[in-house]
């Protein structure tokens, strides 16, 4: 039931995962794949994320805010300029996000990854 509900709303979309914590990234990848989504990445730093964006088709993205001390905002700017929806998934409070990204959906860690995947259709609309 979980799989079909998500597939009906997201299909076989390609989701970029930008996360520097290995176990969190692995949990995200497995949950997204089990929902029928194709994962691009995960990218543990902004440079790799930008490289993947240059080389791969991406329909949406999940971004951690702080990647080994580096900001994910350059990646967010590229996504926004291309009209690609994204969500922040971070341990940082929403108030720490710059005003230019206050409209971006934000999930604070820790969160249940399966609930997160089920919420993706609404969070990342319009897909």
Automatic annotation (TrEMBL):
Keywords: Phosphoprotein. Pfam families: Response_reg (PF00072). The keyword Phosphoprotein applies. The keyword Phosphoprotein applies. The modification 4-aspartylphosphate is found at residue 64. Residues 14-124 form the Response regulatory domain. It comes from the Bacteria. InterPro entries: Bact_response_regulator (IPR050595), CheY-like_superfamily (IPR011006), Sig_transdc_resp-reg_receiver (IPR001789). PANTHER family: PROTEIN-GLUTAMATE METHYLESTERASE_PROTEIN-GLUTAMINE GLUTAMINASE 1, STRESS RESPONSE REGULATOR PROTEIN 1. This is Response regulator. It comes from Microvirga puerhi. The lineage of its organism: Bacteria, Pseudomonadati, Pseudomonadota, Alphaproteobacteria, Hyphomicrobiales.
